[in-house]
Amino acid sequence: MKQFYNRIVNTGIAEGESFVLRNRLRVYNTAIFTVLVISVFYFFLAFAKEYYFATIATVYSVLQSAAILIMVSKRRYSMAFHFGMWYGFVFLSAFSFIFGAVTNSYYYFMFLPIACNILFDDRKTIMWYFGITVVIMLGNVYLLDHVTPYYAVTNTERWLGYPNVPFVLLLVFLAIRMFKNENRKYATQIEEQKEAIEEKSKAITDSINYARRIQSALLAPVALMKKNLPQHFILYKPKDIVSGDFYFAAETPSGKFVLCVGDCTGHGVPGAFMSLLNISILRELITEQKIERPDLLLNKQREQIISSLNPDGAEEKGKDGMDCVVAQFDFATGKVQFACANNPVWIWRENMLHEFKADKQPIGIHEGDTKPFTLHQWDSKPGDIFYLFTDGYVDQFGGPRGKKFKHAQLKDKIAGLASMDVEQRGSSLEYAFTQWKGNLEQVDDVLIIGIQL
């Protein structure tokens, strides 16, 4: 019996249906099945009492209930829901006019708006059915006062209508019980899914943290930076655990020192992959191919990146790559050479900020003509401070109006650091960034390197 009941209750519920629809169908199937049982009961009662019009009405109710269950089994849910509402209007009205007001059957119209709220989500549909219910119920009450019922029911016979009460109570009990069980099951599923997601998230985070250690090992070593650039600061704030921004340094075979500050396409894991590729190519160009001049390095870097990301020469080429600055320091002569791909170089000398504008092209495929990168040269003096940076700092939203920081404000900030040593400048810039960002999300990786010669 229990197995049969469960089959009825779960009629038409396909695998993967939403929790809301599953609950709705189970309650609806239970209600229709209960109505079918009630109709069968009153069919035999009406037939025994020779109430043939009532017998016809109960046959109609049985057939309609069965038709609704068939619709649900064929997953025609919307049709079944609307069909059920109109079936309720017709059957209750017919029952009222057959037996009159003495049975108080029109009170059962009050259950229809409840059913409507369970079955439908659209507010207009709910309000429409609510209005129809009120009109039909009031019409029934009015007409019952003016129309003689087909069967005159005695005081004893009117008690035959009261079995409806336990049936309705049973239906309400089953609906509440079903909602409670489904909610408990749903809560258990959510908890299990939450634990599975947390476990997977931890595994992914652990993997990314390990990737961060690998990426950090490939960045310019602290000892190498201190050896060649004793006075410098590095402001490095990845947006995520791993970063698309990187800094790479190498001593060349001729005794010069090369530093690259790069900003790869994307951030997080995709950006980190690009940074590893760019670092690998830079190391090969400097140590194996012995290319030292910054502009030639960037020209060759661009060729290698395009070739690596498009090995088959496909027509639809990805525009991944990087923006960067490559600087070469010749400590013997004091000369500094650099080349810039989309990011400039700023030099602070004697209370004045000198800007070397970047070539408006990335290391990678881009729209427009591909041109050789420009070589810039600077004869350094003691006290010169070089600023190499990516766009994450100036693109950060914040402040009282939630605007970008922008280059002009960064220039003003650098000008205000004139009395500080290099390390203090780095700390001040980091504090200014934190204050500017406030509670807003960091939008990109941030990297600024300041070098005093």
General description of the model:
- With about 450 residues, this protein is α+β, with helices and mostly antiparallel strands.
- About 30% of the residues are buried.
- Helices cover about 55% and strands about 15% of the residues.
- The strands form three sheets. Strands 2, 3, 4, 5, 8 and 9 form a six-stranded antiparallel sheet that branches. Strands 1-13-10-6-7 form a five-stranded antiparallel sheet, covered by helices on one side. It has a two-stranded antiparallel ribbon with strand order 11-12.
Which descriptors apply to this entry?
453 residues; alpha+beta; six-stranded antiparallel beta sheet; 12 helices; 13 strands
Q: How large a portion of the residues is in β-strands, by DSSP E? A: 15-25%
Order of helices and strands: HHHHHHHHEEEHHEEEEEEEEEHHE
Instruction: Name the overall outline.
Output: rod-shaped
Number of helices: 12
The helicity comes to: 40-55%
